[in-house]
Amino acid sequence: MPADSRGAIIAAPSSGAGKTTITLALLRALRRKGVRVAGAKVGPDYIDPRFHERATGCPAFNLDPWAMSDGLLQHLFLQAGADRDLVLVEGVMGLFDAASNGLGSTADLAVTLGLPAVLVVDVRGQGQSVAALVKGFRDHKPELVLGGIILNRVGSDVHLEMLQEALAPLDIPVLGGVPRDEKLHAPNRHLGLVQASERNDLDAFLETAADKMEQHLDLETLQEICTRPAFQPVRSQVAGELPNPPGQRVAIAQDVCFSFVYPHLLQHWRSSGAELTFFSPLDNEVPDPASDAVYLPGGYPELHAERLSQADRFRLGMTAVVERGAFVYGECGGYMTLGKLLTDARGQEFPMLGFLPLHTSFETPRLHLGYRRLHACRTLPFWQDTSDELTAHEFHYAQTLALGPADSYSRCGMPAVGTVDRKAWFPGTWLGPSCTSLVAAGIERGISHQMKGSIVPIVVVLFEIYSSLWLFMKILADRAKESVSW
Predict the structure, then answer these.
(1) 3-state helix, strand, coil in the chain (%, to 5)
(2) Parallel/antiparallel/unpaired status of strands 188-189 and 249-253
(3) What is the DSSP letter of 217?
(4) Which of 75, 287, 373, 401 is least buried, going by the fewest C-beta atoms within 10 A?
(5) Tally of CB atoms within 10 A around 57
């Protein structure tokens, strides 16, 4: 990162305070002023960073203080800030919200990187009480620097003046107050915001939001609050913390149905010498015939099940991949697509690729959310050392209706302490704590399916219930025996 590159964390007391909209608006407003600015996102969110990229015109990375080592966090932050003047990092949930053991919060990242936090406070229905709230957030973690405050959804000029007077004794810069405006509302659905690639009006939205920031916030003071990262570099074998490419020539599904991919992972694969190609199942495209591995990422197959079921060229192309023995990895929505049937929200069943004895359903959504740890049962192309423990994050609403006999490729550590009986949810082999190094009990996840005539497993997935595989990284030794969840 250049010597003059600086950063700050855009945080909030809770989810729903408007930090995503504020972050996007600030990124676009600063870019319009000629500031070379980049965005980043705390946690495993696939969706928000794609909005950051549209706002700034440059790549945005994820920074997860639970799943990543300090060295990897530093490395990715420096990458995000390369040739940039500023990096604004959007927080996740509330400033101090973390896993159940308190690790992995936005505040943890701010301290690790030595960056100040700017607190976005939703002040609807609130007057002088805002001072008590902000004071509590300032004092809760003494090593955290609360560099500024943005008051969001202000009711009037009189309301703003009242809030500013109440906050004055705290001696924290108030950057201004953004008035309530329905034009700043972003559409969302079950896994977050409607994706940036699906928003034809996104640039107009960003311009309108940036106008609001210029009118109501002090952007010069914001830039002054941003500081250079204050961390002692940690030696980190970054390449050793990320998975190997699953093949030399990797074909990756990419469209609005399969879009949950981490850019830093693809960047690592490229730097490792892998050749990456992309294809769109929704557009009935086929994977590169020369590929020796195919990656179907997560996304929204439940919203496009009918169209996917009619993609005959895609189906034939994938069948050819399987028949020649290439490695196929399906993650989250990709895993659902590898199954036999997918039931959508209306209760209609649609045939999928049929490579796995699996029927998934979105008809009765049920939230599954939390950090996970994976232990290998056998080696995989991107997971050679079975003694390594990988970090993962699970977030989905679909459920398994049927799962036939299958082999396991990993054990997934459950988040609760003690015995967690999930057999009522998912079929599988139940493991007690004595069978693993986990504090909690685990459940076999991940299956392979051998098509007729195949000698080796040709379709591999890590999760039994299409969990989002997070960063495929080794956990730091001092975290190895902790069991955590949201």
Answers:
(1) 30, 25, 45
(2) unpaired
(3) B
(4) 401
(5) 12
Residues counted in the chain: 486
Which member of 226, 257, 332, 412 is catalytic? 332
> Sheet holding 61-63: strands in order across?
61-63, 37-42, 86-90, 6-11, 117-122, 146-154, 174-179
Task: Report the alpha-carbon distance of residue 467 to residue 334 in Å, rounded.
Answer: 10
Task: Tell me the residue type at 226.
Answer: C
CA dist 303 and 340 (Å) reads 17
Asked if 191 and 47 touch (Cβ cutoff 8 Å), the reply is yes
Q: What average pLDDT does this structure show over 452-461?
A: 33
Residues 59-87 as b or e (16 or more Cβ within 10 Å = b): bbbbbbbbbbbbbbbbbbbbbbbeebbbb
Q: What is the pLDDT of residues 252-278, one digit of tens each?
A: 999 989 988 888 889 999 999 999 999
Cα distance between residue 119 and residue 170, in whole Å: 14
pLDDT tens sequence across 90-147: 999 999 998 877 789 999 999 999 999 999 999 999 999 999 999 999 999 999 999 9
**H-helix or E-strand containing 400?**
strand 399-403
Between strands 293-296 and 249-253, the pairing is parallel
Q: How far, in Å, CA of 393 to CA of 473, rounded? A: 12
Q: Are strands 327-330 and 459-460 parallel, antiparallel or unpaired?
A: parallel
Tokens of 425: 């949810």
CB atoms < 10 A from the CB of 329, how many? Answer: 24
- Residue pair 316/288 in contact (Cβ under 8 Å)? The answer is no
Cα–Cα distance, 408 to 255 (Å, whole number):
29
* CA–CA separation, 374 and 272 (whole Å): 23
Distances (CA, A) of 108 to 43, 68, 138, 145: 11, 12, 14, 11
DSSP for 6-37, written as a single string: EEEEEE-SSTTSSHHHHHHHHHHHHHHTT--E
